[in-house]
Design brief:
Number of domains: 1
Distance between the termini: 79 Å
Order of helices and strands: HHEEHHH
Largest sheet: 2 strands, antiparallel
Strand content: 5-15%
Length: 160
């Protein structure tokens, strides 16, 4: 009778290991996109309304009091100064909301991650897909806001 011995003991996975995502993140990203497409218009309207509210309140209201600003020797209207900050704020707000609240809701409340984990998709793939989805949604939101600002004539170039 031949005895078998293990040459190497099984390795335990460390909680501090580097993530090893595969290309299996793509279906998870596509799933988020398909779900978002059903609510795209209300989502974009909500993401566009807040920066426009700030621009109307502070840009036109307080902009009449402030006038222009001199930045590095260049005179800039206050509303243009506020518009560039509004775009940055919207990008951070959209990405952080999507990465924090929406991902938590999919993980804990809706149990979507549990269903996805029944497929041959690892947790690293799900987390990567959620991060890329948050970045994509922030990019899409900022593009929509920039388009509205260009339509309103706040900026004449996409550079702001």
């Amino acid at each position: 009778m031949k005895s078998t011995t293990l040459q190497h003991p099984p390795q335990r996975l460390s909680p501090w290991r580097m993530p090893r995502p595969t290309l299996r993140f793509w279906p998870v990203f596509q799933r988020n996109l398909l779900v978002w497409r059903k609510l795209a218009i209300p989502s974009l309207l909500g993401n566009i309304a807040e920066p426009l509210m700030w621009l109307v309140a502070f840009g036109y209201g307080m902009g009449a009091l402030v006038g222009t600003l001199t930045i590095n020797g260049t005179t800039v209207p206050y509303i243009l100064f506020l518009a560039s900050g509004s775009i940055c704020m919207s990008a951070m707000n959209a990405a952080s909301f999507e990465a924090l609240y929406s991902a938590f809701s999919r993980m804990h409340v809706q149990k979507t991650w549990d269903g996805i984990m029944n497929a041959p998709v690892g947790l690293d793939d799900i987390v990567l897909a959620e991060m890329l989805w948050a970045a994509f949604k922030a990019l899409f939101t900022v593009t929509a806001i920039l388009g509205v600002m260009l339509a309103l004539g706040i900026s004449h170039s996409p550079k702001l």
